[in-house]
Amino acid sequence: MELTLNRSDYLQVGVTSQKTMKLLPASGRRATQKVVVGDQDGVATCFGIKKGEAVPVFKTLPGLKIARLELGGALNTPQEKIFVATGSEIRGFTKRGKQFLSFETNLTESIKAMHISGSDLFLCASYIYNHYCDCKDQHYYLSGDKINDVICLPVEKLPCIIPILACQDRVLRVLQGSDMMYEVEVPGPPTVLALHNGNGGESGEDLLFGTSDGKLGIIQITSSNPVHKWEMRNEKKRGGILCVDYFDIVGDGVKDLLVGRDDGMVEVYSFDAADEPVLRFDQALSESVTSIQGGCVGKDGYDEIVLTTYSGWITGLTTEPVHKESGPGEELKINQEMQNKIASLRNDLEHLQFKVIQEREKYQQSSQSNTAISSVPTFSVNDKFTLNKDDASYSLILEVQTAIDNVMVQSDVPIDLLDVDKNSAVVSFSSSDVEVNENFLLATYRCQANTTRLELKIRSIEGQYGMLQAYVTPRIQPKTCQVRQYQIKPLSLHQRTHFIDHDRPMNTLTLTGQFSFAEVHSWVVFCLPEVPEKTPAGECVTFYFQNTFLDTQLESTYRKGEGIFKSDNISTISILKDVLSKEATKRKINLNIAYEINEISVNHTLKLIHPKLEYQLLLAKKVQLIDALKELQVHEGNTDFLIPEYRCILEEADRLQEEYKKQPAHLERLYGMITDLFIDKFKFKGTNVKTKVPLLLEILDSYDQNTLISFFDAA
Amino acid sequence: MLLPVFTLKLRHKISPRMVAVGRYDGTHTCLAAATQAGKVFIHNPHARRQHLNTPRLLQSPLDADVSLLNINQAVSCLTAGVLNPELGYDCLLVGTQTNLLAYDVYNNSDLFYREVTDGANAIVLGTLGDIASPLAIIGGNCALQGFDFEGNDLFWTVTGDNVHSLALCDFDGDGKKELLVGSEDFDIRVFKEDEIVAEMAETETITSLCPMYGSRFGYALSNGTVGVYDKTARYWRIKSKNHAVSIHAFDLNSDGVCELITGWSNGKVDARSDRTGEVIFKDNFSSAIAGVVEGDYRMDGHVQLICCSVDGEVRGYLPGGAEMKGNLMDTSVEQDLIRELSQKKQNLLLELRNYEENSKQAESSSPMNESDAQRGIIPANTKLQTSLTVNMGSDSQAAHVELQISTSNDTIIRAVLIFAEGIFPGESHVVHPSIQNLSSCIQIPIMPPKDVPVDLHMKTFVGYRNSTQFHVFELTRQLPRFAMYALSSPDSIKEPLSFVNFTVSERVQRVVLWLNQNFLLPDDSEIQSAPFQICFTSLRNNGHLCIKIKPSGEITVNTDDIDLAGDIIQSMASFFGIEDLQVEADFPVYFEELRKVLVKVDEYHSVHQKLSADMADHSNLIRSLLVRAEDARLMRDMKTMKKRYVELYDLNKDLLNGYKIRCNNHTELLGNLKAVNQAIQRAGRLRVGKPKNQVVSACRDAIRSNNLNVLFRIMRVGTASS
Questions:
Q1: Mean of the pLDDT values across residues B432-452?
Q2: Taking a C-beta distance cutoff of 8 angstroms, is the pair B289, B17 a contact?
Q3: Domains by residue range for chain B, with CATH
Q4: If pLDDT is split at 50, 70 and 90, which confidence band does A486 have?
C-alpha cells in the first residue's frame, strides 16, 4: 500500500529547538489532539485545530529560550502535564495552561536535554547530568563530552532506573545512580534517543538512537552489556537525525518509525516480519525538522504526522485527501475556508505593513539624532560544521529563520569550495588578496528567494590551519549581518574513533616540559577536531583518531608535563610537531620535543594508499574510455567485438561516471599526500628533498607501487 | 500535475542545442539531432524501415527507428523547416565550422552544400523582412549570411563579435520579421534586414534567443541568466547557478499565451510565465537537457512540447487542459499562497520586533560599552560616504578608478560586497580587510574592462572591531561609461593623429552635461564656453583622447582607438537623440594594420588552395600505392609489399603534417577574417542611422570586388562616391 500524505501548515511560532513540540493525549469526546510547542522566544503555545483554523488554548509569556518540552504525569495515567526547560529552570503547566511548577535547578549552565518519567526528572546541561525525584537531587554524573540527549528505560518494565546519555564523542553512557555502568559505541555522534516502539519493545530494553551524520540504530541495553540489533547507514547522504517518534501512520497495526532530519527530510519506516525497517514514505521540506509526532490534529478520523520546523512552522502531513470525492458543495466549503483564511491574512498584512512603515520612519528619524544608537537584535543562525567521513570534506550548513539574502565566505587558509547539488544559490568567487589582507578565499553566495537553509561543502588540506568565516545577511529590514567563525584545525581530516590497530608500525612524538594538564589539552583541542573543550577529569587521557582520507591513525595520550602522540603516518607527526612547537613558543613555554621515527611506517602508509590510488587511477582510465567506446558501439551496432573488459566498462558506464563525478580531485589529493609523506620522511632525517618532488610526480604519473616504494627508499 | 504523454529512450547521445523537429516527408513528424562522431540521427517512429539504406543515410545498428546521417565533422548548428515552399515538406539544415548543408531527407539528396568561411555557430530558418523566399540564416565569426533553397546568398551583414544565437521575431510590430542576434560581446542586436534598429547590452554571451509572441522574446546567457524582453525593455530575468541549454516558447497551461520553457544543464526543465518569470511547471531529467522543441509527435493533431536530454531521453508533454485550471504543479495554489502570506507576516513581525528592541535599547541608553559593540550597536547617525575618483596608480599598482567608502564616525568597515555586472570575474567583488587593517575608510580599485556604464550595488558591513553582528548599508552608485579616462591638461599631451569629425546642433551646455555624465571629472573643473578643448588619458593603455568643440557645433574627437571613437559617437547620439549622423574619420594606423590583414587574408586563401590541391594529389597517390601494395601481397612479393607500405606510411605522415599546417592556416585565416569583419563593424559604429548601414553595405561591396582603396575611402568619408 502506498502512503500518500498531504501537507497543511497550521501555525507559525518563533524559532524552535530540537524536541519542543508534543501532542496532548486526546481527552473527552473529542478525538482530535491539541498541540503544544515551545519556541526560542520562551513562549509555550498550545492550540487545537477547528475547521482548519488554529484555535489557541493558551500561550505563556516570553522568557529565556525553551530548550526542551516534554509531557509527564503520574505513571499509568494520561501523560498530559506539560514540562518546559528554559534556562536552568523547569516549569510545569497543566493542559489548560495553569502553571503548577516552577523548579529552579541548581545547575550553573542552561538545560540542554530533559526526560521525565513519573516523578523522576532527568536533566542534562552541556556536560552535567542530574537526576531529581520530586524535585530532590538524587544523582549526578559528569560526562567526558557534551551530552546531546537523555532518556531512561521504562521503569514499569525494569526493576531499577537506567538512564542513558547520548554523548557527542560517539558513545551512549548507561548509568546507574551516579555511576556509569558501561559505554556503548555508536557509529556517529548520537543526537536523539527514543524507546523502540515507544515502550522499549517487549523487554523494555530496546533503545533507538539517531546520529548527527544521519544514521539510525537499535541497541538492546541489558543490565550487563549492549546488544546491537540493527543499524541503518545513511546511504542517501541525508541530513542528521533531529527527532523520531513511533506511530502507526500506515495503519497496519504495527507502529512505524517517523524520522525528522536537519535537511528537512521527513521519513516513515515500517517494520517487516524480521523487525527490520523499510522506507515507506519520504518528503523533503525546506528547513530542519526539529520535532515530530504522530497523532490526529487536523480532522477527526484522519491520522497525521505533526512536525515543527526550525523557523517555527507547525505542519501536518495528513492522510486526509486534499480533494474530497463527496459532492461539489463540500469542495466549495473547503474553498470558502481557504478564502477566509487568505482574506484574514491579507487583512493582518495590511495592518502590519502600515505599522511597519510608521516604525521605519521613526527609525529613519532617529538617525538624525546625535545621541541615539542603532541596535538590531541578533537573529538566530542555526549552523553545523561537520566532517563527512565518506569524501573527507567538511559541510557547513547555515539556517536562518527568514530568507537569506546572501552569505559571504572568507577564509585565511587555502580551502576549496565544492558545488552542492541541493544548493541553488549563485556563487561568485572574488580574487583573493593574500599578501595584504590574508584572504585565501572570498566568495559570495547570492540566494534565490525563500532560501532559509544553505549548504556548503569545503575541502581542507591537513597542516594548513586557520579560520573560516561566514557573514550571513538575511532578507529583513533593517539589514544586518552576522559573522560565524569555524576553525580549520591542523589535522582537520581526523575523526575520533573508538579503537585503533595497535599492530601498525608507529612513529612517536613525545612532549615533555613544565605544562599543566589543561594546557596540553588545549593544544590537542587546537590541533584536532571532535575533542571536548573542557579538560577531562582525571590525570591522564587517551584519544584515538582516524584520518578519514587515508585511514591512518593517531593515538594521543597526555598528562601534566607529558604528551605522547603515536601515528603510523609520518606526515601527521610532522604537522603535530610543527604546530605544537609554534604554539608553545607563542606561550613562552619551554617544551622538549622528542620523536622516534619508524622507517617501516612510511612503506606501510604507502601500502595503505596503494589500493585507493590504484582504484582511482583505474577509474579515471575507465571513465576516459567511455566516450570512445560508446562511439564504437554506435558505429558497429553491438559490442560483441570488444574484449570483455571494455564491454564491462560500457555496461557500468553510468555508475562509473557517477562515482567519478562524486569525488573530484581525489587523485590530486592523494598525490598531494604522497608528496607530503615524501617531504616529511626526509625532513625528520634533516634533509630537504623539495628538489626531488618533480621526479616524484613523474613517478606518480606512471604509477607502480614498487617503483614508488623504491623511490622512497632510495632518495 | 502535468505528466509526460510519452517517454522515449533513444540509445544515442544528443549534442546540446542540436535538436530539431521536422516533417521530412510532408506528413510524419521526425526528430533530428546531432550525436557523437559527427553524425546526425533522425528518429522516425511512424514509418518503419521506410528509409533506404543509402550511402548517406545509414540504419542505426542500435535502434530500429533511427537513421544516421554522416557529416564527418563536428556539427555546430542544426535546424529543420521549409526552405523551398514548392517542395511541400521540410528540409534539414546542418551547419559545421566550415560548411552548411541543406539536406532533403525524403529524397536523400542535397539541396545545397556551401562552404562558409565564417563558420556557422547558430542557424535560424524563416522569412526576414521583405525578402520573399525563406532564408536559412547562419551566424558565424562576426558575420551573418542568409541562403535561399538554391544556396544563393541573399543576405549578408556583419555584427560585433562571434554570433552565438539567432532568432526571428516581429520586433517593431510591422508584420515583418526582424533578426535578433546574440553575440560574444554581450550584445543583442536587432537587424531589420541589414539595418541595426536596436542594441541591448547584456552581461554575458547570449547563448539562446527565442521569439515568444509579438515583440516579446526570451533570452539566455552563458552565466545562467534567463529572461524575457519586450522590445528593448527587459520584463524579467532570473539567474541560476546552472546553465540554460535551450529555451523555447510554448503555451503549456492553455491560457493562450506562451510560457518560456527552459532546459537546464542539471536536467531541470521549467516553464515560466512570460510576464513575471514565475515557475508554473517543472520536471527533472537524470542528465542535462539537450534541447526543447515542439511538434505533433504522436500524429494526433495535438502539438506536444518535446524535451530531450543528452543521454537520449525524450519526453513529450501535452498542454494542460481546462480541468487543470493552469495549475500544473503538485501543490495546491491556496496552500502556497497561505504559506507565502504567512511568511510575509512573519517577516513584518520580525521587522517590527527589530524596531521595538531598538527603541528599547535607545531608552536605556547608557554610554556605549564593550558588549554593545560586540552586538553591533552603532550610533544612529552613522552615515556612509562614497566617492569615485581616478587614481593614476603607482609603481606597484596600475592606474584605476578608485571607489572610496568611509563612515562618518569611529565605526569601522568590516567588509564591502559589490554586486555589479560585467566588471568583475564573477558577479560580485568582496573586500575584506584583515583584522589589523580595519578602519573607517576603505579604498577599492576598480578596473572596468569595457566602456559601459555600470551600477555598483554596494553592501557595506559596518560595526566595531570585535562585533559579531554588523549593520548592512546598501548603496548604489553608477560608474560612468568613460570612467577609465583621466582628465589631463591639453598642453601636456600630444594630440593623436586619428580623428573623427562631425557636427551636432546642440548647445555647448548640453555637451558639457554629457561630459559630466560620462566621465569622472574632478569637482573643480569649470565649464567653459565654446570653443573649448578637453583632453583625457586612458588608464588602460595611456592612449590620449581629445574632444574639441567649435561654436558652430562641429566636434572633433581625436583618438587612436577606433572602438573608443565609436563608443563616444554612439553615446552622444543616444544622449542628444540623434537619428542620423555622417562622420568624417581617419585612423591611419588602424587602416594600415587592416591593409596588412587584408593582404594576409589573400595569402592564406592561396595557401589554403595550394594545400587542398596537395591533399588531392596525395590521396590519389595513396590509392595507387595501396593497390600496388596489395598486388604485391597477392603475388607474395613480400619485399615490394613492404616497400610500398613503408612509402604509404611516409605519405601518411606527410598527410598528417599537411593537415596540421592546414589547421594552423585555417585558424589564422579565421582570425584575420574576424578582424576584417570587425573593421567593417567599427567603421559602421562611427556613424549613426542610415549612414551607418550605408557604410556597412558599401564596405562589403568593396571587399567583394577586392578594391582596397575604395574600402578605405568609405571608412573615411562614409560613401564610395566622392
A1: 87
A2: no
A3: 206-321 (2.40.128.630), 377-479 (2.60.40), 485-578 (3.30.160), 588-717 (no CATH)
A4: very high
Q: Which residue of A has its CA nearest to B408?
A: A370
> Do residues A381 and A399 lie in contact, with contact meaning Cβ atoms separated by under 8 Å?
yes
Rounded to an integer, what is the distance from CA A224 to the centroid of its chain?
Answer: 30
In this prediction the ipTM stands at 0.83
A436 contacts chain B (CB < 8 A): yes
- Assigned architecture for domain A494-597: 2-Layer Sandwich (3.30)
Lay out the sheet containing A206-211: strands in order across. Answer: A190-195, A206-211, A216-221, A226-232
Give how far A312 is from chain B: nearest CA, Å: 10
DSSP per residue, A249-302: -S-SSSPEEEEEETTSEEEEEEE-TTS-EEEEEEEE-SS-EEEEEEE--SSTT-
Among the listed residues B278, B340, B336, B334, the one whose alpha carbon sits nearest the alpha carbon of residue A349: B340
| Domain A381-488 CATH class label | mainly beta
| Cell numbers representing residue A380 in the block | 538566530
Rounded to whole angstroms, how far apart are CA atoms A30 and A27?
A: 6
Residue of A315, A336, A360, A373 best to disrupt the B interface, most CBs of B under 10 A: A373
Q: Sketch the domain layout of chain A as residue ranges.
A: 381-488, 494-597, 600-714
pLDDT per residue over A353-363, tens digit each?
888 888 888 88
Query: Is the separation of the CB atoms in A200 and A154 below 8 Å?
Result: yes
CB B64 within 8 A of CB B50: no
**Rounded Cα gap, residues A339 and A244, in angstroms:** 35
Distances (CA, A) of B457 to A572, B65, B424, B454: 46, 55, 13, 9
Please answer whether residues B94 and B116 qualify as being in contact, where contact means their C-beta atoms are separated by less than 8 angstroms: no
Closest CA to B140 of B155, B154, B128, B158: B158
- The conformation of residue A127, written as its DSSP 8-state character, comes to S
**Strand partners of residue A165:** A150, A173
Tens digit of each residue's pLDDT (9 = 90 or more) over B467-481: 888 889 999 998 888
**Chain A residues within 8 A of B473 when measuring between CB atoms:** 479
Nearest chain B residue to A359 by CA: give it. B355
- Angle (CA) B507 B513 B514, round 5°: 95
pTM: 0.84
In chain B, residues with a C-beta closer than 8 Å to the C-beta of A366 are 358-359, 362, 380
DSSP per-residue letters across B2-26 = ---SEEEE-SS---TT-EEEE-TTS
CB < 8 Å from B in window 266-325 of A: 311, 322
Question: A498-501: long-range contacts at Cβ-Cβ below 8 A with a sequence spacing of 24 or more?
Answer: A498/A170, A498/A171, A498/A185, A498/A544, A499/A544, A500/A544, A500/A546, A500/A553, A500/A555, A501/A553
Query: Among positive and negative, which fits the CA dihedral A652, A658, A663, A668?
Result: positive
At residue A1, the pLDDT reads 54
Low-confidence winner among A94-103, A143-152, B501-510 (lowest mean pLDDT) = B501-510
Q: Among A688, A12, A698, A5, which residue's Cα sits nearest to residue A348?
A: A12
Q: Which residues contact B641 (CB under 8 A, 6 or more apart)?
A: B629, B632, B633
Q: Which helix (H) or strand (E) holds A572?
A: helix A570-586
Residue B339 grid coordinates: 504559506
Cα gap A570→A574, rounded to integer Å:
6
Locate the chain A residue with the closest alpha carbon to B428.
A428
Q: How many Cβ atoms are within 10 Å of B657's Cβ, its own excluded?
A: 10
- Residues A422, A488 contacting (CB under 8 angstroms): no
Which of residues 334 through 373 in chain B touch A, CB cutoff 8 A? 334-335, 337-339, 341-359, 361-362, 365, 368, 372
Inspect the interface and report whether the beta carbons of B382 and A374 lie closer than 8 Å: yes
Calpha distance A531→A544 (Å, rounded)? 10
